[in-house]
Amino acid sequence: MWRALLGLIVLLACAPAASAKTYPGFHAPGTPAKYDRVSTVVVGPASARNVLVLVPGTQAGAGYMLPFARDLVAARRGWQVWVVERRENRLEDHSRLSASPQAMFDYYLGWIGQQSPGPHFQPADAPYARGWGMRVAVEDLRVVIRAAARGGRHVVLGGHSLGATIAVAYATWDFNRRAGARDLSGLVLIDGGSSSSVSAADARKQLADLKGGSPFLDLVGLNLPWVTGVLAAVGSTLAVRAPDDPALLDSWALLPPSLKPPVPVTNRAAFGYAVDASTGPDQLALVQSHIGHLADTGDPRGWVDTGPATVRRAAEALSGDGKVDGTAWYHPRRLSIDAASVAGGVANPAQKLLGVRATHGRDVHVPIYAFETSLGKGRVLKAARALARRSHTTAKLVDRSASYSHCDPLFAAPERNDFLKTLVPFLSRSLRTAQ
Fold it and tell me: What predicted TM-score, i.e. pTM, was given to this entire model?
């Protein structure tokens, strides 16, 4: 017993903590120098010879991928995981996320509609973000991949949702007649990717709308593009730090009705109700997982975990680890516009209009892994299969569309996570192919 306990103590003492690194990024026209930066959160031993670089999806920050990153490093020796924190996350104000629950709420949300608000959150004004499209994301990502590859390490690139589209864009990008895939040993597509392209006419219309509107995506339609990210950050932090207190957000008059449970609940239960696949609104499908349900009794009601994920794990993923949170408060609309033209690396008129150079769809000569959930509706595996066929490479395709929601691959506990269980052997095979 004592020997086992000593071994556990040594293991915990040697386990590397997540660390943040920031690099000079692409010089985007009109962008202040302090935002021409790209960051990563690194999990795993510095001695690792292999790196999985992960790119978050739409309106997502590095934090929501960290629980999975830790699971992978624990399951597969010799690997690090680098989670990209895109430049738009530098616009966020985390200064009061560590304040008391009431002070945090008042600063970020309680001031809205008040005639004489006290010190409060000031939304970012960043018109230059209208230019933060796929080229900016890919060039920033290239900085990360080059850093990860130093010393001859093998790099596998992966992404979740829109992050998978960015990964395909990188792999097929034309870097002076050289495909980005030549930097990689494998490609991991988690419920995302790229298939058909938007038309040039539609892309032109979206550019015109962008020119006269906000630079940022407004998921809930309140004309407050940042509110989805702030709600997620505040709600998840309350669920972690004051889980059994009465739900503070339920008293907010501006809380969308779709996020309000039918009975009084705790902070933890309010968060679970919003992001569980069975009760969360359609607008939040991008952060939903199978977690559980409201307790049958209690005043306020608590939460019962019954899914592959737990409410605590999901809340910790979105609230982050003190360095980053799991959402992007400001998601550039231009990035989503450009993403629709990637088309699996096949040149098309929309790419020419938008300045997207994802044209090496025949040159992705690395193994491909793709995992599909219910949100993919068949598109993810179809696109991955087409990319593999186009490049004459192998593809490992995992279909969990009947049982997994969009964030289950990242939020599920390791012992119940089919994504982790199928990815680990793929990573081993990708290295043998690279060598």
Answer: 0.94
